[in-house]
Amino acid sequence: MSQHHHGHHDHTRMDWTEMLPLLEHGAELQSPLYRQAAAWLGELVPTAGVRRILDVGSGPGVLSCLLAEAFPYAEVVAVDATPELLERTRERARAAHLGDRVTTRHAELPDGIAALGGADLIWAADFLHHLGDQRAAVAGLARLLRPGGLLAVVEGGLPTRRLPQNFGIGRPGLEARMDTVHAEWFAEMRAGLPGAKEDTDDWRALLADAGLVPSGTRSFLHDVPAPVTDAVRDQIVAGFARHREALGDRLAAEDRATLDRLLDPAEPQGLHHRPDLFMLTARTVYTARRG
What domains can be seen in the chain, in order of their start residue? Predict the structure, then answer.
């Protein structure tokens, strides 16, 4: 679940089943980034000592399977509130011959956190910002860690860029303006969550306040230069279509018109045909351990 994915157009509700392909393909494309992150986690905790991993807010299970590969002695429990995403996780694990080590757990979060059981590693990627009280959720996850266990929180990084600043249609700087509009949408989404509490996004401080010892923060780059493959192009088109649907009414008329041209398969300068598309972003992983 990424902060760069956007809700359905009925304000801030998220239809995770509808978003399954976008979530899954996005995670697949960024697998090299997440493999680097998992390898780094393996330097922070002894790989052989990690026997149970919780992937909280696991989505379609791409990361659950990567974690199972990176930590070969561990059972990975994919935790999510959407049955369709958990079913996709089971299918993916079976296809990767990991079905005996990747299990799924349906849980409404944050209420279900306490019942998830102990873990040596907890991975919470793009999950906490969907909860009203992030501080309480971090504290709840911290309580699940076994001694020496590690909590890894993936939040933020850098906004994704896919087009040059000036790409020849409309006013330059479209993606930066879309980021501004998304930030407003994101703030409204957060404010509308059950039990919403204002808190700064100081993840290191939140981890420390939960009684954990911060053990390093790293950002990992996802860099796909032009020209992109068809799979990357398809993901870029899907991402812009989601932007147009979720944010369209908030954008200036000129930018809406630009987006419509970009998404038109018959437009020679559109996303379906441009040779200058790329994908560049970074994800930040915050870690802390239980003493």
Answer: 20-289 (3.40.50.150)
